[in-house]
User: Fold ANR24 protein from Molothrus ater.
Amino acid sequence: RAQHEAAEAGLRAEAAALAQRLQELERRHEKTCEEVFRVQRQALFMKSERQAAEDRLGAAQKQLEQAQDEVRRLRELHGQAEDAARLVRDRDRKITELSKEVFRLKEALNALPESGGPPQSPPNTAALQARIRALEEKLEETETRHSKVVMLYRSHLLYAVQ
Assistant:
């Protein structure tokens, strides 16, 4: 009987030790479960943050593409404006040259009757007058085209500024 009681006491002590070990394992299991839950929650949060960052990146890339398109369009407009400015300068130069030639011809025409020399032949005078009229018409036409180019240039510049 003493042996039996000793064995029973040993078994009870072993059962108590096992129960205590089981409680310890249950606490560790609970902590592990809490840690797993916290890690899962953090992973879910990170995933949503990543998705939000990817969305922001996509929006930023779209804005960048739009800005690059706008830059290309503005460069094209700038090139067109420079071409228009070059045309304006060319037209101004032509207008100036034509104006000078018309002025010289008018001076030559005015000088003809005033000179005390022999009278010029009428066909030469008529030819000079016809030439003056043609040059004046060409001058008016060039000035009209010039004003159209200037208006186009101004509209391009205004559009580029806007």
